[in-house]
Write a structure and sequence with these properties.
This protein is α+β, with helices and mostly antiparallel strands. The chain is built from eight helices and eight strands, in the order H-E-E-E-E-H-E-H-H-E-H-E-E-H-H-H. A hairpin with a 3-residue loop joins strand 7 and strand 8. Helix 1 packs parallel to helix 6, helix 1 crosses helix 8 and helix 2 crosses helix 5. It starts with a helix and ends with a helix.
């Protein structure tokens, strides 16, 4: 369990280091290895980079805290309902990634302006039922339905959600989604993208570039940068 808590804490450090911290907002979770209806989660009231073995909490699939000294986030239902709906998912991330939030306000599809966009060439769902916080199980279920089988989605005017079979993969897609949105925003600032990657080529590129060694490599690289 200590190893999993360290992984969760390291994920928070990586996300914060890469600019996805929003003071004490944003949260990450990791499914419990011995009980799929429990998960470890960042507590409320601290920054992403401030998680420790002592303050990480344990939550059940109904969104109720069952262990840990910290307090539970009111948007816990993003995690509980995605983990309930997707048994293939081990890690869930929600941040207020700034470029993704700005991009979501444009009402435009994400394009392969850069290599980053290729990771989302198969589709990027947009949750736009509300711009409110996801503070009920019903809203969490709606987010999970919108996410469906994808690894990431945009919450319009709010942030992002990523979900994956490993924490490293979930972090990778959180970072790449924000970068892809940043690149397209830059193109929009210059008058709008005129040339973008071919959609079918982007799917191929995203498939061979999105692999476990890339996920762990990026994750560990940013961790090393955090320590310098």
């Amino acid at each position: 369990m200590e190893k999993l808590k360290r992984l969760l804490a390291d994920a928070g450090r990586v996300l914060a280091h890469e600019g996805q911290g929003d003071y004490v907002a944003g949260h990450v979770s990791l499914r419990h290895p011995d009980d799929p209806d429990l998960f470890l989660m960042k507590p409320a009231g601290i920054g992403l980079e401030e998680m420790t073995d002592d303050n990480i909490i344990t939550v059940d699939i109904e969104g109720k805290q069952v262990a840990g000294g910290g307090k539970c986030h009111n948007e816990v239902f993003i995690h509980s309902e995605v983990l309930r709906a997707r048994r293939d998912v081990k890690a869930v991330i929600h941040t207020h990634a700034a470029y993704a939030v700005a991009f979501s306000s444009l009402g435009k599809p994400l394009q392969a302006v850069s290599n980053d966009g290729a990771f989302f060439a198969h589709g990027l769902p947009l949750f736009d039922e509300t711009t409110e916080l996801i503070v009920t199980s019903a809203r969490g279920k709606s987010v999970a339905r919108t996410l469906a089988g994808y690894g990431a989605l945009l919450l319009r005017n709010h942030g992002i959600v990523t979900a994956a079979a490993s924490m490293e993969e979930a972090v990778f897609f959180a970072l790449k989604l924000n970068q892809a949105c940043q690149m397209q925003l830059m193109a929009e600032w210059a008058g709008g993208p005129k040339l973008v990657g071919d959609p079918e080529e982007a799917k191929i590129k995203g498939a061979y570039a999105g692999r476990p060694d890339m996920f762990t490599g990026v994750f560990n690289y940013v961790l090393r940068r955090c320590s310098r």
